[in-house]
C-alpha cells in the first residue's frame, strides 16, 4: 500500500470520526444530509459484497466493516435517536434518492467490467459514491450557519477523494495491470464536485471567517 | 489479477 492510499483511507476514516463525534457527543446532526448518509450506506453495502468472497487483508476487512457499521449507525442515529433526530434539518434536505440511484443503477447495468451480479453492484457503488455528496452540498448551500464540524466532515471527505486519485496515478506507474477506467472516471467526477466547496472552505479559513456557500 | 487490485481498495 502506498502513502497516498493510506492517507486517503485515514482522511476518509477521520471524516467518519468527525461526524460520529458531532452526533455522539454533541448529540446534533444539524447541517448533515440524511439523504447523503443513506446513499453512503447503500454504497458500502453494494461494494463490500466481496467481504463474503475475497479475503484481501486484515486491514481491508476491518476497514470495510468499520465503514459499513459507521454508515448504518449514522443513519440510525439521524432517524431513530430521540435527541439527535430532532436536530435534523428535514425541511432543507429535500433531494430525492431515486434521482441519483436509478441513473447509477442503469449505468452500472450498461457499463461494468463484467456482467455478473457482484461486478454490476461494484460499478453501481462506484457511480453512486461519485454523486452521493450532492444532497449534502445542496444542504450546505441552504444552511446559514455551517458549524466547524460539518465543514471539516465535508473537507475530509473531499481530501480522501483527492488522495485516492494520487494513489491511482502512483499505482498506474508502479503496477503493470492496474487500469480501472470505471473508478478513475467516476473518481475524477466525484472530486470535481468538491472543487467549489474547497474554494470557499479554504477562503473562509484564510480570511478567518465563518464558512458560507453562496446560494 | 486485475480483480484483486480493484477489490483491495475501499
From TrEMBL, chain A:
Segments passing through the bilayer: 55-77, 98-115, 121-140, 152-170, 182-202
Topology relative to the membrane: Multi-pass membrane protein
GO CC entries: endoplasmic reticulum membrane
Record's keyword terms, sorted: Endoplasmic reticulum, ER-Golgi transport, Membrane, Protein transport, Receptor, Transmembrane, Transmembrane helix, Transport
Major subcellular site: endoplasmic reticulum
Subcellular location: Endoplasmic reticulum membrane
BP GO annotations: protein retention in ER lumen; protein transport; vesicle-mediated transport
Keyword Transcription regulation attributed: no
InterPro entries linked: ER_ret_rcpt
GO molecular function list: ER retention sequence binding
Pfam families: ER_lumen_recept
Family: Belongs to the ERD2 family.
Protein name: ER lumen protein-retaining receptor
Species: Miscanthus lutarioriparius
Source organism phylogeny: Eukaryota, Viridiplantae, Streptophyta, Embryophyta, Tracheophyta
